[in-house]
Structures are given as structure tokens and as C-alpha cells.
Design brief:
Blueprint: E1 9-11, H1 21-36, E2 41-48, E3 63-69, H2 81-91, E4 101-102, H3 104-114, E5 120-126, H4 129-143, E6 149-154, E7 160-167, H5 170-173, H6 178-189, E8 192-199, E9 202-208, H7 212-215, H8 218-222, E10 225-227, E11 233-235, E12 240-247, E13 253-254, E14 257-266, H9 271-285, E15 293-298, H10 299-313
Antiparallel strand pairs: 1-3, 1-4, 2-3, 5-14, 5-15, 6-14, 7-12, 8-9, 10-11, 13-14
Length: 336
């Protein structure tokens, strides 16, 4: 389908992993203020992270900002939707954010069908996370040089911070098992629901956990008190080894294989020729190890399906009862 003017616009940038909730709030407010400086913008509302539902696996690094425009008669002379997107992209330049501007309804349809939020997506499948991260980073660097590509962002498969707890045989000396030690860690960091509050028709859990200054310090977590069955209090560090390590912020898989995605936004070029140039650039610059594959998704996936079907459907018959070989998109009256 050709791009439709839906009236509103969705700003969906991606940030690097490891972003804190406070920094995400700061960036969200900063981008909202920059967008609101454009005279044609009536309102801006952004969110970071996901809703409290399993159907929305958006990480904290993915922003979704809905932009509503004023009526067309209030726009500046000569202003068009395409010029408006170009101006917004020029104004909203924040280090660490990769801009994507998409129509809201079409974006939801594309994400439900393919998982890709941008017009074009590159999916790299393989077995090793470090290798996938290296390949997607190379693809991002190559695609940024292709004409018409306004942004290319490869999801980072490393950079997430994980607190790891190594169970030690020392816990058995105090009459503790793995579940006892794990419950202390989960209650201190993740918290326990100790009650529920009712506000009208809504119910909210009351969660109790240690303050952030304790949860953010590995040393303070090691000093947490653990109560044994005999009533003795010992340190968590006496029965477990805690450390912070680097790991994947989110794992994605397709067809039982690990997958890394690259989001590509386009402006000023048709989808088919742009993807053709991107495929040639990747084939020339990126060498895939054995066992790794690249697939193209997003709106381009639908274009390929339509092209394959039209090659069969749009094929006029000639007077000599044979078929002409013509372009699937061009009507022809040529005789064979």
C-alpha cells in the first residue's frame, strides 16, 4: 500500500541499553519539548518502556511519542507532511537516540505482522550473541551510507547489567538451601507484595523492597541479613557470591534461532530501489560467517509478496495464444 496521510505522527526512537528510568524520563521530556517547538504541533505525549501486560514487550530504551497536528489551515504557507517530518528530524537531534518517524496506524499493523517498527528491517539469525552483535553493528554502519536512509539502528545484544548470584556450598553449613538464599535476594531487589489497595474499581499491589541506594550497591547487598532456622543472623555475602556482569538486555528468536534486528528509516526514496541498494551494500561490505543468515522484513516483506503474486496475475495474453514477458507493474498491449 502507498503511504497514507493519517493526520498524526508517531516518534519512535531507540536508545542504547542500560538506560535508567530517571534518564529515560529526562530524555522523554527533552524530546517532547523539542517537538513542541514546531508551530504545526498541537500536542505531544510520550511514553517509555512497556505497559503492564505481556502483549507489550517494549524495553525501557524504546520511546513512543504521539504527535497531534493542528488543522491544515493553521499550518505555515507551503508546509507539507513530508516537509514537517524533515523539520522535526532536523530539530530533534539528541545524542544516543536514533530517530524514526512513522504513521501510528500503519506502524501498529507492521509491528503486529513482522515485529519491525520501521519501514525496513534487517534480521540476522545465528547462534552466538557476540557474533550477532558484531554483524548487526557492521550492517548499521554500512546502511547509514546508503542514499535515502535517514537513520539505521541495530539493537544491542549486550550492554544490559545483570546481578548474578553464585550459589555456594557454604549455605548448607548454616542449614540453608538455594530457595532460602534466593528469596532474600529477590525480596531485597524485586520486592514482595505485602498487601493491596483499592481505589474505586482499581486494585494496586503494595510492594515492599529495599531503597534504591541499597539495591544499586553490590557491597550493601552482600551485607544483607539472612536469618537461619536456628535464629542466627548472617551476611548474604557469607553464603553467596554477588557480582554485576554484562549481558543481553533482551533475547529475540525466530525459527528456534537467536536473532538480531536492525531498524532502518527511509525518506525521499521508493522502498524497492532503496532496499536493492542496501542489499548490494551489505553483500559487498559484510561477510557472514557459516551458519548465519540475513532476512529483510518490515513493509519490504509485503512488497516482495505482492510482487511475486503480480508476476503471475498481471500477465496479458496475446493474440497468438502465448504469454508476453513484461514487467508485473506495467500494462502492455504489445503483441508477441
Amino acid at each position: 500500500m502507498p503511504p497514507l496521510d493519517e493526520g498524526d505522527l508517531l516518534y519512535m526512537p531507540s536508545a542504547l541499553p542500560g538506560l535508567s528510568a530517571g534518564k529515560a524520563t529526562e530524555l522523554l521530556q527533552q524530546t517532547d519539548r523539542l517537538i513542541k517547538t514546531v508551530p504545526e504541533v498541537a500536542s505531544v505525549f510520550g511514553k517509555a518502556g512497556r505497559a503492564e501486560t505481556a502483549t507489550d514487550p517494549a524495553p525501557l530504551e524504546m520511546f513512543e511519542t504521539t504527535i497531534q497536528f493542528k488543522p491544515r489551515e493553521q499550518w505555515r504557507a507551503g508546509m507539507t507532511p513530508d516537509k514537517l517530518v524533515e523539520e522535526l528530524d532536523r530539530i530533534v537531534k539528541v545524542p544516543g537516540l536514533s530517530n524514526i518517524w512513522v504513521p501510528p496506524i500503519r506502524n501498529r499493523i507492521d509491528m503486529l505482522a513482522t515485529g519491525i517498527k520501521s519501514p525496513v528491517g534487517v534480521k540476522v539469525a545465528g547462534t552466538d550473541l557476540a557474533q550477532l552483535d558484531s554483524i548487526t553493528a557492521q550492517i548499521e554502519r554500512v546502511l547509514k551510507q546508503v542514499p535515502g536512509v535517514t537513520s539505521a539502528f541495530a539493537e544491542r545484544l549486550t550492554g544490559g547489567l545483570h546481578r548474578r548470584q553464585h550459589r555456594s556450598h557454604r549455605a548448607a553449613r548454616y542449614g540453608l538451601n538455594i530457595a532460602d538464599v534466593q528469596s532474600v535476594v529477590s525480596a531485597a531487589i524485586g520486592g514482595d507484595n505485602i498487601g493491596e489497595t483499592v481505589e474505586g474499581l482499581q486494585r494496586f499491589p503494595i510492594n515492599l523492597r529495599y531503597p534504591r541506594e541499597v539495591r544499586d550497591s553490590v557491597e550493601k547487598l552482600r551485607n544483607l541479613s539472612v536469618l537461619t532456622e536456628r535464629g542466627a543472623q548472617i551476611r548474604l555475602g557469607d553464603v553467596a557470591t554477588l557480582r554485576v556482569s554484562d549481558g543481553p538486555p533482551m533475547l529475540k528468536s525466530e525459527n528456534a534461532r537467536l536473532s538480531g534486528w536492525v531498524y532502518v528509516d527511509l525518506h525521499g526514496r521508493d522502498l524497492s530501489s532503496a532496499v536493492r541498494d542496501m542489499q548490494q551494500a551489505i553483500a559487498k561490505e559484510v561477510k557472514l560467517p557459516p551458519g548465519y543468515s540475513i532476512s529483510w522484513s518490515g513493509q519490504f516483506e509485503f512488497l516482495e509478496r505482492a510482487t511475486a503474486k503480480l508476476k503471475i496475475v498481471v500477465r496479458p495474453r496475446c493474440s497468438s495464444y502465448s504469454y508476453c514477458s513484461i514487467s508485473p507493474f506495467v500494462a502492455s498491449t504489445k503483441r508477441c
